[in-house]
Write a structure and sequence with these properties.
The chain is an alpha/beta fold and 395 residues long. It has two domains: 167 residues, 2-Layer Sandwich (Bifunctional carbon monoxide dehydrogenase/acetyl-coa synthase(codh/acs), Chain M, domain 3); 212 residues, Ribonuclease HI, Chain A (3-Layer(aba) Sandwich), CATH 3.40.970. The chain contains ten helices and 17 strands. The strands form five sheets. A four-stranded mixed beta sheet has the order 4-1-7-6. Strands 2-5-8-3 form a four-stranded mixed beta sheet, sandwiched between helices. A four-stranded mixed beta sheet has the order 16-14-15-17. Strand 12 and strand 13 form a beta hairpin. The structure holds iron/sulfur cluster and zinc ion. Iron/sulfur cluster (SF4) binds next to loops.
Length: 395
């Protein structure tokens, strides 16, 4: 028996180091992910909850372990387009549970279970599965069948991770080629207001949400299935500033949804009226005055960036839902967008990025610039970066 309360009042709750019974995923664990797949009706056994590997109660207090959450859903009206948005609700609903903290998305999840909740009987992942099925089916009647599988066995998680990465890539690829100019509507999301109360995400064809989990197609599918949900449509309206990609309707809706805190978004700038950031970003763009350019750091980068701060410190500066000139949380996919920081100069303004990330977005960096963007292999601090930029004829 467990006596754990569940509800939106628990969203935003943190579970700190030393307070958790068990921690799943997070920066120190490579094997972690969550995946929702839409299946045929006869492929899903409704209400089935499976645990493969050690359960909460099997682990010593304070353990940090891998986890894969695999959710299969089916319903006559469900489309695969909805998978990403349904997947994002894992974050929302797990945070509804008293004493559980969920952060991140896709293969970057981080979950902590508070000792108090464990002591109140939350000692099995099965309880979480039960709560998830109840919440999903109550809030989204389009889901007729649902099963949840928790996998903690590291080898099995590794195997499933390969599958998940393929699915994430398919979703990301879908939006390639679609331009902001081709669409009539953008989408917004306020799911993260529980942690960052004035944060609003604006998702355009060329700007994936900063969590990387919701692109334009996902936003469109979400509003179709749940018009009252955290995602909503934003009619494109008028482009009031073509250099800074500021749209009147975007500004109006962002002002309403941020309770007047933010009244203008320049959609493709980190320097002038930048998009706000909650804390879910896959990467952070940060301005380096000495190089008059940007550094970009992704969540996976270990160690200090060129400004001598690690990702976590920069995350603290960029997050919170405030408009923070010079800091911008982004989805990695945005680095591959033709509109990537176009108002600030795009890649012409990028001075430093981790070598792995640079390789990942290689095709999107103009050829003549590629060698002129420094990585951790070229420079160790801002002075060296400035010298590197000078040598490259960029300063
Ligand atoms: Fe929604 Fe943005 Fe949060 Fe992603 S980061 S869940 S798009 S508010
Ligand atoms: Zn967020």
């Amino acid at each position: 028996m467990y006596v754990i309360d569940v509800g939106p009042q628990y969203e935003g709750e943190r579970v700190r180091k030393g307070e958790f019974q068990v921690e799943y995923g997070g920066p120190d664990v490579g094997q972690k992910a969550e995946l929702v797949l839409v299946k045929e009706m006869d492929e899903v056994e409704h209400d089935k909850i499976t645990i493969t590997g050690m359960d909460i109660k099997d682990l010593p207090e304070g353990s940090t372990v891998p986890l894969f959450i695999k959710v299969d859903v089916a319903g006559e009206l469900l489309e695969r387009d909805l998978e990403a948005v349904l997947e994002r609700r894992i974050h929302q609903y797990i945070n509804y549970i008293e004493g559980i903290f969920h952060m991140g998305q896709r293969n970057e999840i981080w979950i902590r279970i508070h000792k108090n909740s464990f002591n109140k009987g939350l000692d099995s992942l099965e309880h979480i599965g039960r709560i998830l099925i109840d919440l999903y089916t109550a809030e989204l009647p389009v889901i007729e069948k649902m099963s949840v599988e928790f996998i903690t066995d590291p080898a099995k998680v590794e195997e499933l991770l390969t599958v998940a990465l393929t699915v994430y890539k398919e979703r990301d690829d879908k939006v390639k080629g679609l331009r902001d100019e081709d669409v009539e509507e953008f989408y917004g999301c306020v799911l993260c207001q529980s942690f960052a109360p004035t944060h609003v995400c604006v998702i355009t064809a060329e700007r994936v949400a900063l969590c990387g989990a919701i692109n334009w197609f996902d936003g469109r599918a979400a509003v179709k299935v749940d018009p009252e949900g955290a995602q909503f449509a934003i009619p494109k309206g008028n482009l009031i500033d073509p250099e800074y990609y500021s749209y009147d309707t975007v500004n109006q809706i962002v002002a309403e949804r941020s309770m007047g805190e933010v009244t203008r978004f320049n959609l493709h700038s980190a320097l002038s009226y930048p998009h706000t950031s909650c804390g879910c970003f896959e990467a952070i763009v940060f301005y380096i005055p000495e190089a008059d350019g940007f550094g970009i750091v992704n969540r996976d980068f270990v160690g200090s960036t060129v400004i001598d701060e690690p990702f976590s410190t920069l995350a603290g500066m960029a997050s919170g839902g405030k408009q923070n000139e010079g800091y911008l949380g982004v989805g990695v996919q945005y680095l591959m967008s033709p509109k990537f920081l176009i108002s600030d100069g795009g890649y012409n303004r990028v001075a430093w990025m981790p070598s792995v990330l640079k390789e990942m977005v290689k095709e999107n960096i103009p050829e003549d610039l590629f060698d002129k963007i420094a990585t951790e292999k070229d420079v160790q601090n801002v002075d060296e970066l400035a010298a590197f930029m000078q040598n490259a004829g960029r300063l």
